[in-house]
Write a structure and sequence with these properties.
This protein has one helix spanning 2-20; strands at residues 24-27, 35-36, 45-46, 57-62, 65-72, 93-100, 102-104, 110-120, 127-133, 145-150, 153-154, 170-177, 182-187, 190-197, 208-216, 227-238. By secondary structure, it is mainly beta. The protein has a single domain (22-238), classed as Jelly Rolls.
Length: 240
């Protein structure tokens, strides 16, 4: 009985420390969904839309480190309702992506850091690897921020930054943002996006993060169009 009480106390303390790192909004109901987090993450994500296949996400280990791998192949239409319809110049949309389990404050400074490794691909059209979104049930709105490579270079960068510069290497990501104002993006300590204004926030929207691979489908494409990305050490804290 004593050991049970101690275990519960430790878990409650860990939860308190994690939640104290940043200011959350409300929680989504993900009780029937697969959740994703790790001991060196303080954010939990979940499959809000069905993944194309079981291997779209995999927990792997390398040199004692556990990390999450995303894999997306040609023709793998995402499981969100909007993925199987024409929009933004694409007949359909391909997706292997997970969503934050809580919302964020609308006008609040945050800093997201994590490690990423672009293993293969990201040389196709508009391949997104990080989103700040706002759509919730009863309020449909577009993403506030989409961080993506297109034809191999980072869209919105202050100067051209190509994925081939970091392909196959672990690099640090730092995403400083306020959903109502602007954001900065750092890759391996270098500022690649500087004070970019965030538009289109809806009054009914609730900001939240998404991580994974998301891109327009190409019905005429041949071959695998394989993109693979590894993610580790996801941490979110209140900003300045």
């Amino acid at each position: 009985m004593r050991s049970l009480i101690i275990t519960v106390a430790v878990l409650l303390a860990a939860t308190h420390v994690a939640s104290a790192d940043y200011t959350p909004g409300r929680s989504f109901d993900y009780s029937s969904k697969t959740a994703y987090t790790d001991r060196d993450w303080n954010v939990t994500f979940y499959e809000n839309c069905d993944l194309p296949e079981y291997a779209s996400t995999q927990w792997l280990r390398e040199k004692g480190e556990r990390f999450l791998r995303f894999t997306l192949k040609n023709g793998q239409v995402g499981g969100c309702r909007s993925d199987n319809r024409f929009r933004s110049r694409a007949l359909y949309w391909e997706r292997a992506e997970i969503k934050q389990t809580t919302t964020l404050e609308k006008d609040h400074d945050y800093s997201l850091t994590y490690r990423v490794r672009f293993v293969k691909g990201f040389d196709n059209d508009r391949e997104d690897f990080l989103q700040l979104h706002q759509s919730v049930s009863g309020c449909r709105g577009g993403p506030l921020v989409m961080v993506k490579f297109s034809s191999g270079y980072l869209l919105g960068a202050t100067k051209r930054f190509f994925v081939e510069e970091v392909l196959g290497k672990w690099v640090s990501v730092r995403f400083d943002f306020n959903p109502a104002r602007s954001y900065d993006l750092y890759l391996d300590g270098k500022k690649v996006v500087d004070n970019k204004t965030i538009h289109r926030q809806r009054a009914c929207g609730e900001p939240h993060l998404k991580i994974g691979i998301y891109r327009p489908g190409d019905a005429e494409a041949t071959g695998h169009r394989l993109s693979v990305m590894d993610v580790d050490k996801v941490r979110l804290v209140d900003g300045k």
